[in-house]
Design a protein that fits this description.
Uridine Diphospho-n-acetylenolpyruvylglucosamine Reductase, domain 2, Uridine Diphospho-n-acetylenolpyruvylglucosamine Reductase, domain 3, Uridine Diphospho-n-acetylenolpyruvylglucosamine Reductase, domain 1, 27% helix, globular, binds flavin-adenine dinucleotide
Length: 309
């Protein structure tokens, strides 16, 4: 009932071409873990509609979240209240100007790295194997092999849910830390201006190749996961702590601690979100008891709209 009214309101005020209503999408189909119950998804095809769309959601009292590529998400088996917004891949292209590039948040991160490489712009090679969107990478300050996306950001265009308008922020107005940024939960990244060092294409390709080899050798890239499940605590490697306790191969239901990388929990046997959560708790307790170190999740858990991060 509410769905129909919302759909009609959206069509009238936003236009079906700008935002596509996809009710009851199985989130397992949208997450790299392959886990998650149903949710109503709105695919944003034109980000200019966001102020009006979010105003409608507010009028209807419907909470919302923003999803990128779903590669760092653990979604509840019961599904989600409210709606999940998703920026369609195609709404904007990369725009180059000298050694600066405006990258849309909807763009796949790996594609963006390679498009920059073709223009002899490097510095992001370490991010090549990080799956997901540029928006998700900006929110998480994704990083690997000595590179963090936040270091390259010069300005960022963001829809601010709190005030309902689009703003462009300068570096002094944002903070990128280890897998943490200063943005509010209802900030939606729309695009980022990156400044990248000029390097010959062949050098960038060589470094990309090295990073890919390192990743393939050390991570379960062919299994369903959300990447590292825990952040590295200051001064420690979470993977090393878990490995030293002999927890590789530990299984709860369909969820297993990867034998290849102890900080990866993989969905090997049709795991539920609850299996993954139980395994996370088991690891956390064992590490706390044995090492006195409290592990904090890197994976974002979506289970209760009241606990949006
Ligand atoms: C095999 C594998 C390897 C990985 N390796 C790495 C690694 O080396 N380094 C690393 O940092 N991560 C790694 N990850 C984790 C993940 O890929 C990154 O965190 C990635 O940047 C998440 O992007 P996403 O688009 O999938 O975001 P999602 O998973 O969709 O969302 C993650 C968070 O970002 C928010 N978000 C998404 N889009 C936007 C937007 N447009 N505006 C505002 N907020 C947004 C979401 O609300 C959520 O809070 C790995 C994951 C996998 C599966």
């Amino acid at each position: 009932m509410r769905s129909n009214a919302l759909k009609e309101e959206m069509a009238g005020r936003v236009g079906a071409a700008a935002a596509l209503w996809l009710p009851g999408e199985l989130m397992a189909r949208h997450t790299s873990l392959g886990i998650g119950g149903p949710a109503d998804v709105i695919e944003i095809r034109d980000a200019f509609c966001l102020p009006e769309l979010v105003a409608i959601l507010r009028e209807y009292g419907i909470p919302w979240r923003i999803m990128g590529g779903g590669t760092n998400l653990l979604v509840a088996d019961e599904g989600l209240e409210g709606v999940v917004l998703h920026l369609a891949r195609t709404w904007k292209a990369l725009e180059f100007q000298s050694n600066r590039v405006e990258v849309p948040a909807s763009q796949n991160l790996g594609t963006a790295v390679m498009e920059c490489a073709k223009r002899n712009l490097g510095g992001m090679e370490g991010l090549i194997g990080v799956p997901g969107s540029v928006g998700g990478a900006l929110r998480m300050n994704a990083g690997a092999y000595g590179t963090q996306i936040g270091d390259a950001v010069r300005s960022l265009t963001v829809f601010r849910g709190a005030v309902g308008r689009v703003e462009t922020l300068q570096t002094s107005e944002m903070r990128f830390e280890y897998r943490h940024t200063s943005f509010a939960p209802d900030d939606i990244m729309l695009s980022a201006l990156l400044e990248l060092p000029e390097r010959p294409y062949t050098d960038i390709l060589e470094r990309v190749k090295q990073c890919n080899q390192r990743r393939r050798a050390s991570q379960p890239v062919n299994e369903k996961s959300a990447g590292c499940i825990f952040k590295n605590p200051p001064g420690y490697s979470a993977g090393k702590l878990i490995d030293e306790l002999g927890l590789k191969g530990t299984r709860v239901g369909g969820a297993v601690v990867s034998e290849r990388h102890a900080n990866f929990v993989v969905n090997r046997f049709q795991a539920s979100a609850s299996d993954i959560l139980k395994l996370i708790e088991l690891i956390r307790e064992r590490v706390l008891r044995a090492c006195g170190v409290e592990l904090e999740e890197e994976v974002i858990i979506w289970r209760d709209i009241a606990k949006l991060q």
